Amino acid sequence: MTILPPRIHPLGRxxxxxxxxxxxxxxxxxxxxxxxxxxxxxxxxxxxxxLLAGSGLSYRICYAHKANQAQAFVRAAxxxxxxxxVASPGELAGALRAGFPPGRVEATGPKGRAFLxxxxxxxxxxxxxxxxxxxxxxxxxxxxxxxxKRVPVLVRVSGFGGAPGRAPRRVSRFGVPAxxxxxxxGPLSEARxxxxxxxxxFHLDSSEVGEKAQAVEECLALLEQCWTAGLAPHVLxxxxxxxxxxxxxxxxxxxxxxxxxxxxxxxxxxxxxxxxMLGYRYENGEIRGVPVFHKYGNAAPAxxxxxxLLEHPLPGHGGRTVARVLQExxxxxxxxxxxxxxxxxxxxxxxxxxxxxxxSGAFLVSLDxxxxxxxxxxxEVMLDPVVIYxxxxxxxxxxxxxxxxxxxxxxxxxxxxxxxxxxxxxxGPGDIVAFVNTAGYQMDLSASAALLQRQPxxxxxxxxxAGFTTYADTAGPGEEAPSCSTTTSPS
Length: 491
Known about the structure:
The chain is of the alpha/beta class. About 30% of the residues lie in helices and about 20% in strands.
């Protein structure tokens, strides 16, 4: 019984169909375990590259490292010839250690004085987050022995959509507000012998094409101001935020969401643990608010979202598309997909510890993984996992049941899923639960060492003529271990 069926990549489906192989992975690397597929990552890169090459634009793809810490993905990005976006000294060190030349590295996010000192002379492109960062970069450039090399920078802009005298549609703690950008033109002009001002960037926490298109249009207007002032920026970095293709049945996701709301309003079966509202609120007889889960009904890949944006008309440019305007102005397009490149490139395995009846009549299934190692921040994951049954067959009274998945922390809040999942039967000790499509911002973003729990290992899985081969993510190229399974090919 699958109520919220996930879309599963053929490689992942082939692996999960081999119960002995999956059990062998847990025996070898321990449970819980993250599994990553660099081949799928590479295929996602190819989809972005094909789209951008077909658009006729000059472009750069930067893998957003923060989406996943797997070195296998960093090496895949290097081998595919794309760039990388780092947001910390640790990510920078990992990228350089993997072999990325500084010219293919971009540093984003808030950067303190020590990090800026490391970056300013390294040849890395700095995505300037605020006025202080720019002034510090200029100070550092002036203070060091002049070597004739300019520091390449982009300036991040935020606060789009605000009419004169009104607040912008979205306020962000990152980036220079669009209405204040003019104050940076002077410092950029004065420091042009030390700072190579390449262009602008933005990153919206939104998957709405219209909002991103508006940000593009406002950035184009700011670039024109720069050109008028004698500067020569030629890059527009539109960040990431590309959708993932989560669901195998968007209608099923919508039906579950409606049933969830009815339950929260007392008009149907309760579907959440202990009355958890999942971001909704009950007000004047109606369910309102914004849920703490993504639009898991999306079935379109990330590259299709980028295509939609490139084909979007810009009212201020006579209705010409984003792609056409960028072509006409000879602007190089940069994108920073993280989850878009990690889409379907990983899954997470956890063993069932035990199952007990819950007061609601459902069952509480305890796993050997905590919520923070599988869920992105405070978000609820609205996809059914795949259960690999290894426990003895159920008795004649076994029947489909609703279960809540609980974590292994000694904390009431550690519910892996706070919504009800419907299964063919209740899992027992020794069964394995596989959460699919977890590589993008689920494996690492909020993982903690609370209660001294171990961090899940990462196993790299590749498929060839002889079946699957695996090796630890910390292993270097050529250190792959022998296959621990199968000759079955993916369907």
